[in-house]
Amino acid sequence: MHDESYELFVVLSGSADLFLNDSGDPTTAAEGDTMLVRPGNFHSIANSSRSERLFMLSIILPNEQFARQVWEGTYSGKLEETDVSHLVE
Q1: pLDDT for 37-75, tens place per residue?
Q2: What is the pLDDT of residues 3-34, one digit of tens each?
Q3: Distance from the Cα of residue 28 to its chain's centroid
Q4: What is the Cα–Cα distance from 68 to 66, expressed in whole angstroms?
Q5: Which site among 64, 77, 80, 81 is 20 to 30 Å from 24 CA-CA?
Q6: d(CA 2, CA 40)
Q7: Are 15 and 28 in contact, with CB atoms under 8 Å apart?
């Protein structure tokens, strides 16, 4: 769980099951799909296939504004000092 950060998962190959907050029912994502986990959510990822390998990219987004810009593809420029310090604390 991340108290303030968002986590963006991108499935590069295979398929993944995302479990949120002790839910028994996963959200399944396939190659090319993205899943965004908001702050404060317990989460885990599992390979949903026993025969195919799962390759994913996980990106931690430091705050809601940055997450929205990345999700919408509108981010351009440098991180603010407060974002950088949050990432290295």
Answers
A1: 888 888 889 999 999 999 999 988 877 777 778 778 787
A2: 778 888 999 999 999 998 887 889 999 999 99
A3: 14
A4: 5
A5: 64
A6: 6
A7: yes
Report all structural domains of the chain as residue ranges with CATH numbers, in order of start: 6-88 (2.60.120)
Q: What would the DSSP string read from start to end of 32-87?
A: T-EEEE-TT--EEEEES-SSS--EEEEEEE-SHHHHHHHHHT---SPPPHHHHHHH
**35 vs 16: CA distance, rounded Å:** 10
Cα torsion 47, 35, 8, 61 to 10°: value is -150
Q: Provide the 3-class DSSP secondary structure of residue 4.
A: coil
Higher pLDDT, 76 or 57: 57
Supply the pTM of this predicted model: 0.68
CA angle 71, 61, 13 (to 5 degrees): 65
